[in-house]
Amino acid sequence: MNSTKRKLGIRPCTWVYLFLITFTFVTSMVGQMGLGGLTVSFLILLLALLKGHLVGYYFMGLGRVKGLWHWPVFIWLFIPGILIGTAFYLTATQA
Amino acid sequence: MTATTETLSPDAAVRHPPGDLAIWIFILAELTVFAVFFAAYAFTRMDNVELFNEYQQHLDQRAALINTLALITSSYFVVRAVSAIREENRRHCVAWLLAALAMGALFLIVKIGEYQHHFIEEGVSLSTNTFYMFYISLTFFHFMHVIMGMVILAAVVVMAARGKYSAAEHTGVETGASYWHMVDLVWLILFPLVYVMR
Q1: If you average pLDDT over residues A14-20, what whole number do you get?
Q2: Which of A18, A92, B122, B198 is the residue whose CA sits 20 to 30 A from B171?
């Protein structure tokens, strides 16, 4: 975790943790409700990519790394994200 | 590495990621393998949509939720352990790492329960169908990484308890933390892809 500046007396990493937990409950609720389809899948995928970005940027500390090492997790999320999104899009449009 | 710089100025920009550079090469290799697995799952699903959707409903959503919460919480505890050692607080560093290990153990227990249900009660195997082939391969590969991460964290705990790390030199803690966050990161994509998206 890079930053030590606190908001409302709470560490930035704790805010990130609370966001991650909230997004996880939203994802799980969608799963338990059995919701599906292209829009829902895309939203869940975007939420997962955002969670991954938060982990890379804040938890792994890549947010304050300059240069080449700033990007690997972002790129890693982007490429499978595009591939998974494409596969689900093609599946939905072919059906 | 970056430990000394971070101790002097925690918010300063650095040129290298936290921890040993070698672990980052390893992390990138692992992430690449998982990316290929994820893409293979998504594209194989294209020709087996009904099968994947049907058997996805057999998975335990509640167990997946508990496991996701356990890994996110453990990652948060590891972040706090790194912060503690940067503040020269070895006792808190050890305590946060032990808490992270406990969350890792919870993940393993829940996952073993899930496997027991599928393998023993349902008689599922790699050859049952394509969905279960991916489910078992992906989750078990990740399961092995959780065990590996716990071994690394346990080694860091022992070293920290022996006073091997300080605010000035804690590369080992950051190295273990980086690997553990990678294990969490992979699960954050695996969970929605295998358990939720349909």
Answers
A1: 97
A2: A18
